[in-house]
Amino acid sequence: MTSFQSHTTSNPNSIAQHAAAVALTNGERFMHESHMEFDARRKLMHSLLNAIPGLSAAMPKGAFYMMLNISGMIGKTVNGRTIKGSDDFAEMLLESKLVAVVPARAFGDDRYVRLSYATSREKISMGIMRIAEFVKECK
Q1: How is the chain split among helix, strand and coil, in percent rounded to 5?
Q2: Is residue 115 part of a domain?
């Protein structure tokens, strides 16, 4: 319940709400540039993830998260440990490659992990390169 609550009831603080109001009323150029940048990050993440054998991701229509289907990794082993679901995948990926993802078990499907593209394109590329290395190590 704690995991469910933390993902469904957290809200932006008052400073973020004020900044959003200013951006919506006075920030058309900023909003357009931000939209274009996030779209580029979304497309980059989607193409890089779908190029990794055993993984797949649908193109999200909003937000800045992508759900990565890890079904192809379940049952595989890394360093003698078996991936049984999203918790194992996330933990082993973090330990092995220093890449953090959110297990989707808390969202109701243990065959997925959630990634965020609210970071630079360089960090997205580096993180996904590390995910690809991790997947290659799975037997």
Answers
A1: 55, 15, 30
A2: yes
20-44 tens-digit pLDDT? 888 778 777 777 888 899 999 999 9
Cα gap 116→103, rounded to integer Å: 12
Boundaries of domain holding 48: 37-137
Residue 28 lies in a domain: no
Q: What are phi and psi of 27, to 5 degrees?
A: -120, 45
* Closest CA relative to residue 58, chosen from 67, 119, 48, 86: 67
Q: pLDDT by residue (tens digit) across 67-115?
A: 999 999 999 999 899 999 999 999 999 999 999 999 999 899 999 999 9
Alpha-carbon torsion (7, 100, 123, 111), positive or negative: negative
User: The whole model's pTM is what?
Assistant: 0.79
Cα–Cα distances (Å) from 59 to 20, 46, 87, 97, 112, in that order, read 25, 6, 23, 25, 14
| Strand, helix or coil for residue 65 | strand
Q: How many domains, in total, are found in the chain?
A: 1
